[in-house]
Each structure stands twice: as structure tokens, then as C-alpha cells.
Specification:
Layout lengths: L5 H14 L2 H14 L3 E5 L5 H6 L28 E6 L2 H11 L7 E6 L16 E5 L7 H13 L3 E15 L5 H11 L14 H11 L2 E7 L2 E3 L4 H18 L4 H16 L4 E13 L2
Parallel strand pairs: 1-2, 1-4, 2-3, 4-5
Antiparallel strand pairs: 5-8, 6-8, 7-8
Helix pairs in contact: 5-7, 6-8, 8-9
């Protein structure tokens, strides 16, 4: 699976939290209360941004105490408090998640597990009636992997919340004549193999909705667009540089054209006039009674 640095994840976390749809999160919390759901599994957790966002909103704040041997306490509290399993293939990110989350006040239990969700996916099992969640993951996976994810959720009657799936939309202000060309190249680049086979890229948001509906689930979706302000210069610059690099990779003969576009966009950023909107979708899906 293609990795992401802790620095990039930290840079995007405030924009992610601001963009996410509060209504779907509130409905998840309601479903958890109504259905007595206490197990949450966060796929490709990175440094734990998803649990940091969701935990206070679903009454799942805090961590399990450790024994002197460093073992994590059992997954389910006697009082039914929510408990989390954070899954990622990057040991460094999992260690960062553990450090960050252990500063939270005592509450629900959190444990981590190192799993390569591409190579070891077949051996990884969900708890029955768990909440399965992820942020900024589904546009990276293949059709086959996504279909298997939905089937695993159906078989175990899991409720799901998948946030911030990129849907191919981007708007930059002030506009540039090359913006649309860059966007088309970036969206083609998104279809490359990110470790799971050919990625669905911008098609993932609609495809996951279709698959859950076909599996007999209730499905709700909402836009969760990034709306980046001129004050968010580090994130904007990192994003623009990444887009220019992706475009140049697909169109190496137009590398100068990509570089000139990037320089113009950086000039807008330096002048304090750059606004960027990036389209994302959130999805909540739960089994029918």
C-alpha cells in the first residue's frame, strides 16, 4: 500500500475535520446507541486522525490502561464503553497514533494492529456488528478490493462510515487556463496502482454507494469538500506541488507546462488570494433490520 508521511497527515488533519459531514457522524452515534455497537475498527488509521475526530462525537474518548508488561487491556469493558482497533501497515504511523492518543483522558479502549490491508487482507476479519470506518482510503483501492470490503461488512453485519473519499472535483481561485488540464491529469493519475491494484480514484465514491445498496444496506452520503483558505499556505503548497508532480509524471513531455502552472499558482498563494476546493464524499451505511 502506498504510504503517507506523518507530516502530510498532520498538515491535512484540520482541513479534514472541518470538511467532514457532522450529520452523518451524529447519525452514526445514534445508531451505536440504538444498536449497542461498541467495537470500532479504523482501517488505514495513519496517526489516528479518524479516531481523534470521531471519538468525542460518539462518546469514545480515551484509552485502555496498560499492564506493567505493556499489554493492552481486554477489548470490551464491562460497562459497554466503546473500544477501537486501529489498523495500519506503517509501524511508524501506528507508534505516532499510540503516542498522540495516549494523551487523551481515560474513556474507551484503543489498541493498534499492524496489518497490510493489501497483502494480508484475506486473513483480516471484522468483529460481528462492528463499526468499520476509514478516512481518505476508498479512492486508493481497486474495484475488487472494495467489493470484498462491502461483502465482508455485509457478512458480519457491520455498520460503516467512510469519510473524505476524493470524487474528482477541484476548483482553484483565481482560475488559470491550465487548471482543467491539470485536473484531468491528476484524476488519471489517481487510477494508478496504490498497492491494491488499479485504483478506482474519483469513481470510488459512487461505486461504494452502489455496492452497499446492492448488499441491502441503508445508505446516506454527503459532500465533505475541502475549502482551503489563503491562510492555509503549507497545505495548499503541498497539494499544488503534488498535483504538478502527478501531472508531469503522466505527461513528461509537458513538464515545463506543469512547472509554469505551478509557479503561477504559487504566485497567487504568495499574494494571499489562493482558494482551493477539493471534492470529497462521506458515506454512512448500515444493515437493514
Amino acid at each position: 500500500m502506498t504510504g503517507f508521511s506523518a507530516e502530510w497527515l498532520a498538515l491535512r488533519e484540520p482541513a479534514d475535520a472541518r470538511a467532514r459531514d457532522a450529520g452523518l457522524t451524529a447519525q452514526l452515534a445514534q445508531l451505536m446507541r440504538e444498536r449497542s455497537l461498541t467495537r470500532l475498527i479504523d482501517l488505514a488509521c495513519g496517526t489516528g486522525a479518524n479516531v481523534r475526530y470521531l471519538a468525542p462525537r460518539v462518546d469514545a474518548v480515551g484509552l485502555a490502561p496498560r499492564t506493567d508488561a505493556g499489554d493492552i487491556a481486554p477489548r470490551v469493558d464491562a460497562d459497554g464503553r466503546p473500544n477501537w482497533l486501529l489498523v495500519d501497515n506503517d509501524a511508524t504511523l501506528l507508534e505516532a497514533a499510540d503516542r498522540f492518543l495516549r494523551d487523551e483522558p481515560a474513556g474507551s479502549r484503543v489498541e493498534t494492529q499492524r496489518v497490510d490491508l493489501a497483502a494480508e487482507w484475506g486473513a483480516f476479519e471484522f468483529d460481528r456488528d462492528a463499526v468499520v470506518t476509514a478516512s481518505a482510503l476508498l479512492d486508493l483501492v481497486s474495484e475488487e478490493w472494495l467489493a470484498d470490503l462491502v461483502e465482508r461488512c455485509r457478512a458480519r453485519r457491520c455498520t460503516t462510515l467512510f469519510a473524505l473519499t476524493y470524487d474528482g472535483r477541484m476548483t482553484l481561485t483565481p482560475p488559470d487556463p491550465e487548471d482543467e488540464w491539470i485536473c484531468q491529469l491528476v484524476n488519471r493519475h489517481q487510477l494508478g496502482d496504490k498497492g491494491f491494484g488499479p485504483a478506482l480514484g474519483p469513481a470510488a465514491a459512487h461505486r461504494v454507494s452502489d455496492l452497499f445498496r446492492a448488499a441491502g444496506y441503508h445508505v446516506r452520503t454527503a459532500q465533505s469538500d475541502w475549502r482551503l483558505l489563503p491562510t492555509e499556505q503549507p497545505l495548499q503548497q503541498s497539494l499544488l506541488e503534488g498535483w504538478a508532480a502527478a501531472a508531469a509524471e503522466l505527461a513528461p513531455g509537458d513538464a515545463d507546462r506543469c512547472r509554469h502552472w505551478l509557479n503561477r499558482r504559487k504566485a497567487h498563494l504568495a499574494s494571499g488570494t489562493s482558494h482551493i476546493t477539493v471534492g470529497h464524499q462521506d458515506l454512512l451505511a448500515w444493515p437493514r433490520d
